[in-house]
Amino acid sequence: MQNEVDLILFNGVIHTIDEKNSIVDAVAVKDSKISAVGTNEEIKRLKTEKTKLFDLEGKTVLPGFIDTHTHLMFTGKSLMGIDLTSAKSIQDIKDLLKEKAKDTPKGDWIFGFFMNEFELEEKREPYKEELDEVTSDHYVVLYHTSLHCVSANTRAFEFLNLSPNIDGIDKYKDSTPTGVIRDPAITEVHKKLVDIVDEQKKIQALKIASEHALKKGITTVHALEDGDLAPGEAKFVMDHQNNVKLRIIIFPQIMNVKEVQELGLPRIGGCILADGALENHTAALFEPYSDTIDDRGTLYYSKDIMERFILEAHKAGLQIAFHAIGERAIDQILTAYEKALQKYPREDHRHRIEHFEFPTWNQIDRAAKAKVILTMNPGFIVHSYGPDMKLMTKLLGKTRIKRFHPYKQVLDANILVSGGSDSPCSPMDPLGGICYLVIHPIKDNRINVLDAVKMFTINAAKTAFEEKEKGSIEVGKLADFVVLDKDPFKIKPEEIINVQVLATIVGGEIVYSKG
Ligand SMILES: [Zn+2]
Predict the structure, then answer these.
(1) Handedness of CA 199, 153, 228, 214 (dihedral sign)
(2) Which sign does the torsion angle of CA 162, 166, 321, 347 carry?
(3) CA atoms within a 13 Å half-sphere pointing along the CA-CB vector of 161
(4) What element of type H or E holds 144?
(5) CA 327 to ligand 1 center in whole angstroms
(6) Which one of 79, 146, 278, 434 has the largest count of C-beta atoms within 10 Å of its C-beta?
(7) 376 and 279 in one domain?
(8) What is the per-residue pLDDT across 153-199, written as a single tens digit (0 to 9) for each?
(9) Interval between CA 69 and ligand 1 midpoint (Å)
(10) Percent of the chain as helix, strand, coil, to the nearest 5
(11) Are residues 89 and 52 in the same domain?
(12) Which domain holds residue 368?
């Protein structure tokens, strides 16, 4: 029969996130799409013999979450390696490495992630001799949380065979290398490690990362792939995305417009770095970092290169995304967007700035005027910088810090802003992100629960021109939902991070369900 409904979810508190923020009891799904929403009575009337029923038992449903900034392949690879987040000393790192080495065949590579020297007793990264004490039978590379630094054991360090004259190779007093490698030498490391991970491992990484996202209630991610860290991986994800249930929007982190057009993608960029990161003093500021005399961070591209690239990509009709954290980098990109738009006006371009962690108030107005959209990362606030803002206050000082992660001001300026995790830099966890937006340590920058939810649903859909298919629970849209054990609108804001995902539904199919 033509009108047969495949699935009915009923007896729930379904926040549709439509224009009126309607709440309904039930929703019907047919051919992977939402065919009706309404009261239990209205929707149950559509039931036929073939219809599956999902009794929500009073639980909460939201549109499936969309994380607009992930590095999906890297997330998968990091989930396959050692998680160093819990390490409080170099001994802890050695213990974790020892565990992993036990069940890794000799001669294989072992990667560790989320090393953070601030958290370690020694306040430094481990040296190669310290890692050798655990294993010389494996190649060991441990990545700093920022991915801008690694510690290698001797075996891996020798494999890397870096030319001794490049900057960024840490040395002992006697000029021999410690095994710690930073910017700019790190680029060489990334290049040399590209082929270490074979096709089978890559397929596994994509699968693991996708399953991890679904578990967190995410039904779509924007996967920012390729670039120096992993050339060729945008194409790899394109070729293999049909093997996973997660929906994937690919951003190729490539500055070659022709190459992207050949891939057939309507968008370009991602975490192409206009500057670095605040905690490394590499985000580009107008005034020096408060804990330095004259360090204003680093712009990674000249004005000319940046403006030429943005003009070319804009002219080609692509949507552009660029990483900019500090004011000086934001200024460079905004200026390039403004110039390109003046030369070739385009309605609804939706060019993006990623992160936008530390803008000036004036830059918020400029972004609004140019209709530039933002992808911001509330997960960073607590995950990367700690709940007390100590590190940020040290870096930016008491006055400037008011402009740190200014969500309220961005929304007040009517800018379209969505939420991304930048996974693996902070975990894929939209409920955590929503929580931090509402309990932001800087009170003036907080937003309400509804606006926070929108950043991971309808706003996120708009961020990839998908508002007709995703982002709210309305007839005709894809049947992507997340079922939660508690209603984020009805609990204390600080408890939102503990809300559990009970089920994730993609296109009417239950792709994750908790225990
Ligand atoms: Zn990123």
Answers:
(1) positive
(2) negative
(3) 2
(4) strand 139-144
(5) 17
(6) 434
(7) yes
(8) 999 999 999 988 889 999 999 999 999 999 889 988 988 887 788 88
(9) 6
(10) 35, 25, 40
(11) no
(12) 254-470
Q: What are phi and psi of 334, to 5 degrees?
A: -55, -45
The total number of structural domains in the chain stands at: 3
β-strands 139-144, 109-115: how paired? Answer: parallel
- For ligand 1, the distance from its centroid to the CA atom of residue 269, given in whole angstroms, is 10
Could you tell me if 188 and 306 lie in one domain?
A: no
Asked if the structure places residue 219 within a domain, the reply is no
With contact defined as beta carbons under 8 Å apart, do 457 and 474 qualify? no
Q: How far is the CA of 271 from the centre of ligand 1 (A)?
A: 5
Q: Which two tokens stand for residue 415?
A: 């800018």
Same domain, 299 and 443: yes
- Whether ipTM exceeds 0.90: yes
pLDDT tens, 455-505? 999 999 999 999 999 999 999 999 999 999 999 999 999 999 999 999 999
What is d(CA 275, CA 50) in angstroms, rounded to the nearest whole number? Answer: 55
- Please give the distance, rounded to the nearest whole angstrom, from the Cα atom of residue 70 to the centre of ligand 1: 6
Ligand 1 centroid–CA 9 distance in Å is 36
Rg of the Cα atoms in the chain:
23
Domain holding 372: CATH number?
3.20.20.140
Query: Looking at the structure, do residues 179 and 265 belong to the same domain, yes or no?
Result: no
